[in-house]
Amino acid sequence: MTRRLLYGIPLMLGVTLVSFMLMVYFGPDQTYELLGKNPTAQQITEVRHSLGYDRSFVVRYVGYLKEVVTLNFGLSASSGESVTDILKRTLPVSLALILPGFVLGNLLGLGFGMLTAWYRGGWLDKWVMTASVVGMSVSFLVIIIVLQVLLCTPYGLNMFPVRGWQVHDIGSWLYYVSVPTLALVLVTLGYNTRFYRAVMVEEIERDHIRTARIYGASPFSIMFRHVLKNSLVPILTRVMYSIPFVVVSGSLLLESYFGIPGVGLVTFNAITSGDQPVLKAVVSLTGILFVLVMLVTDIFYKWVDPRMLRS
Amino acid sequence: MGGPTDVAVVNAALWHRFSKDRFGISGLLIIVIFAILSLCVWFGILGQGWAQTSGSYWASASMEHWFGTNRLGQDILDRTLVGAATALEVGFSVTLFSILLGVVLGAISGWRSHSWLDEIILWAMGVLDSIPFYLFAAALAFAMRGQYFAMHLAMILTFWTTTARIIRAEVMRLKQREFVEAARAIGLPGMTIVFRHILPNTVHILLVQATIIFVVAIKTEVILSFLGLGVSNGVSWGLMLAESSQEVLTGHFGNFLAASLSLFALLMGFNLLTDALQDAFDNRGKIV
């Protein structure tokens, strides 16, 4: 536990160092965005000084680090809004957008994985596996475009909005979230099914499961009480480790395509405009989230598999 | 793990097994066709009119324009072919360099496991893995002032870690084996043992890994180009899809169908190849 926490420190240092170098040190120069027309040489120097451009790499990095550690992210450079407020506004949107697809995609993948592993080699297995290879060969972008044409335009059902996010109750949430959710499920289902199938197949081939099958235990009890329970470790690892990316990266394409004001879109805009306070906040929070996920996964492991307590 | 003859026998048996896999062969065939078309584009035989505008906008398929034309009257077939060349160029260079980086760093870290060098490599992998990829790619694109190769670099710098982890584990496993002990006993230098004797035993893993990275790289190129972080002065299927995302809403499907179907075919080819290779190698034990 403490070892994991200690491992988190160099990791956070690395993440902040990379983000500082890419996004701040070599990032967009903001001098002229803050200046009026025809600035004097003195005005330029003043602005550069206030942005810290005249100080050394180390001094600037330590300053950046200090802000990250104290979670003091300040005000957004482009809108003047407090970064904490921006995150409070956009994080729930991203979660509401991504969670249904993430949960459904994993549950369906798990279901198909269990079915195909149980009927391994049969026609169901072959069909589902073929479908999953087809699914893995379709680009996320293509899925989004097709779904939009089929569900959101007069060429298809025209039942859902093309763009936007005006969510105030469950009905409007379903209205805006359905198409993105479907896209997310379709793009992940092939990968999820194959992953869960591989995990299940490995477990089903163990001697005690074979014995249980020969003795005629019901498939339901074997799958849920033995196979699923024993394969919780790889499943949890996959689910846990995808959380930080699902929240930030996974939503970027959906948010920019459907014009949904979530964390992904805000961060993307911050990169293109050089809005450093927002970038600092998002990158360091993702890093913290990653370390937290590692800690929680460790605790899960010990809870799921007591053998791991000793190692 | 004997001499070269044994290796040749195993390889011949693997090839025999692979050649009986109809899906794998068709996958390979698709890739070869795309590769030939791309080579023709590079050598200036095909697709040269991709930027040429004409007076016929939104033309439907005809003898002159097989896939029709786009809103500038450009030939969609030519653009699709150049897009294929772009996809394969990105896929190939990203796969090559990220596999190389992953093999070298993974081998060093596995051979010298639990040393400070290993710790540093593990730390670098941890750091790169915990930065969201699209943010990393966007930041790199802007730090490099929108250079074309920023996209390649972003993918190479993040994709090598998977290969490195696999190779590290594999080297740690293989270095316990007798043939490595024997090589040590006769005083071979460490790097010779790793690169001449251990790594050749991981080629099958690398081959599968390469096909997987190829798929991810092509998919990522399309999305990066769509987001405006990838190809900007040429043609990419991602750019064609970006154009088409507005066009399909007004009933023009030429760009969309051409780009998405070629993308699907190429990715399908690689996925079929990956599966066939995995199947052939999974049963390696039964041949030897």
Write up what this structure looks like.
- The complex is a heterodimer of chains A (311) and B (288).
- Chain A has 311 residues and is mostly helical.
- Chain A is built from 14 helices and no strands.
- The longest helix of chain A has 36 residues, at 83-118.
- The radius of gyration of chain A is 24 Å and the shape is globular.
- Chain B is built from twelve helices and no strands.
- In chain B, helix 3 packs parallel to helix 11 and helix 9 (203-227) runs antiparallel to helix 11.
- At the A-B interface, helix 1, helix 6, helix 7, helix 11 and helix 12 of A face helix 4, helix 5, helix 9, helix 10 and helix 11 of B.
List keywords for this structure.
heterodimer, A: 311 residues, mainly alpha, 14 helices, globular, B: 288 residues, MetI-like fold
Share in β-strands of chain B: under 5%
Q: How many individual helices of chain B?
A: 12
Mind describing the biggest β-sheet of chain A?
none
Structural class based on helices, strands and sheet pairing of chain B: mainly alpha
Quaternary status: heterodimer
Proportion in helices of chain A? over 70%
Instruction: Work out the helix count of chain A.
Output: 14
Shape of chain B: globular
Mean pLDDT of chain B: 88
Structural category of chain A is mainly alpha
**DSSP E strands of chain B, number:** 0
Biggest interface, chains and residues, is: A-B, 49 and 40 residues
